[in-house]
Input
Amino acid sequence: MRAMVIRRHGPPDVFEVQQRADPQLKAGEVLIRVKTIGVNFADLLARMGLYPGAPKPPFVPGLEISGVIEKVMENPGGRRGEGGSLQPGDAVMAIPQFGAYAEWVAAPMSLVYRMPAGMAFDAAAAFPVNYLTAYHSMFTMGNLRAGDRVLVHGAAGGVGIAAVQMAKAKGLVVFGTAGGAKQDFLRKIGVDHPIDYEKNDFVKVVKGYAPEGIEMVMDPIGGKSLVQGQQCLGQAGRLVIYGLSDAAGTSGKRSLVRGLKALLDTPRFHPLKLMEKNLAVIGVGMGGVLTRGTMVRDELAELFKMYGEGKVKPVIAKTFLLEQAAEAHRYIHDRKNIGKVILSVR
Output
């Protein structure tokens, strides 16, 4: 099979198309003929050597796919209900946790989900990581309710759009940051208070509308952004951390100096200060979330319901071919995407 292999850590040029042996199934796995692949910022970090838990080079990156099941290897000791009803020919989305940039993927049944009726393969590859991250942050961990106010950083990106769509569906007030060229898009998707981070101090904007502070800040940036985000929160506020893009930069090249600076800029949260303002600091990582299979399926069931009702729908920024993975990564590094970038297997 064809696969995109990261030969060494570095810029997008480290990708190489290779012919690799087809996956060999283990008990409890399914073999999926891949149609489309979701490109996540985690893939960029893994390529740069900045993503915890990523394999050592050479390796095939990628965390989510859509496709068609070719073969099922039952697990006699496995629990029913965690993918046990999957059959060859089923159209599915899956979260294999690396190895997705390939024509074929073997994935555990527990991480494979039948696509809702009417969902296209492109949308399915853009769905699980972004929408689960946003839903888990806002409603499972964050317990947001109608009328609450949330600041979404990167509101024109994959997780950002998912968060905005769900926030509007649940009756939340949304502040959203993005570059100047994306402000019209933020208004189009219903952001109540669009913020051009290139021109405006988002803390001043938020405090101008909500002097007492808001209920949640969703931050994939890290570093100093977390300090500023904490300043936006009021009593019982929640600071959600689900990335450290500040360590990556826009060049695509690994910089230990930049990564170290981002870590040094990250605030330490003193327990007494958190108690004083009733603040919660919430870390969200999909690897850990996926170990809670029943919880994930419950969250997806709610998300699929919202999709069927037309309340959420992935926005595809651009589609690249599998062998154009390097170009897709550059596109994201350049902050050009509005929505999800995907790879197509042909």
